[in-house]
Amino acid sequence: MEINASAQESTTSAQHSLLQLCTAEWDLENIVEDLIQCKQIIGTVLTLEEMLNPVDEREVGESTYQFKHGDGEIIAKVNHEMAVR
Predict the structure, then answer these.
(1) pTM of the prediction?
(2) Greater model confidence, 81 or 65
(3) Is residue 37 part of a domain?
(4) Is 16 a member of any domain?
(5) DSSP 3-state of 44
(6) What are the start-end ranges of the E strands in 10-61?
(7) Would you say residue 2 lies in a domain?
(8) From CA 14, how far away is CA 7, in angstroms rounded?
(9) d(CA 49, CA 41)
């Protein structure tokens, strides 16, 4: 019975997440439509897919920076870069 209950909780959680995602997408589409009606968007309107997955983010590629030790390592790198300038 515990496995079945766990699977049911997982399914319920996934359904809740999907509902939240659909609601957020619907809200975003409505906001864009409101902006269009108020003439606050000039030019071509991005599709929902383009807004959620910008080209710039998909084309990042391999990063030269890899911080396996967290924020402290990032801060040290930034401080070093600033000192070198």
Answers:
(1) 0.51
(2) 81
(3) yes
(4) yes
(5) coil
(6) none
(7) no
(8) 10
(9) 17
Please give the single-letter amino acid code of residue 25.
E
Take residue 65 and report the two structure tokens written for it.
Answer: 């920076």
Q: Which residues contact 45 (CB under 8 A, 6 or more apart)?
A: 32, 36
The token pair that represents 33 in the structure block: 């439509």
Q: Which two tokens stand for residue 81?
A: 């870069």
CA 34, 44, 26, 16 torsion: positive or negative?
negative
Domain, as residue range, for 62: 8-84
What would the two tokens of residue 83 be?
């000192």
Check whether 1 has a pLDDT greater than 60.
Answer: no
Q: Across residues 10-35, what is the average pLDDT?
A: 89
Of 63, 61, 80, which Cα lies nearest the Cα of 72?
80
Q: What are phi and psi of 36, to 5 degrees?
A: -65, -45
